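thought: fold this chain, then report.
action: predict
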Amino acid sequence: MPANGFIGFITSQGFFVGMIFGVMKYDDPIMILFASLVITGLFYMLGQISVSYFVRAIAVKMGNFPKAEHEFMLDEFAKALQKREDVFAEVDPIRAAKYKEPEIVPRENVKEVK
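observation:
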């Protein structure tokens, strides 16, 4: 989870905890809102402190992304899926024709409609 997502999650939890506490403790709507804002602020600060300690504690590893290996693996997966689709098309040609991808017509072969 990214740091901003964690802080947003903790802040929204603080808002709901603040609303529950405010409704249970006070009868005046202004005091309920004030309690909710104070507790939301405390949860926000707690989230900021937690994230700052977490970021400081972990070592961010910078490295090269093995793009060639990933592209090779993805190509192999695509070939395997194509083989499976061909096998299924041989078993049930009617269903295979129904779900066949449409042909892409080159732009020069398309006539304009007036």
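thought: worth noting. Helices lie at 3-25, 29-57, 67-91, 93-98.
final: tokens above.
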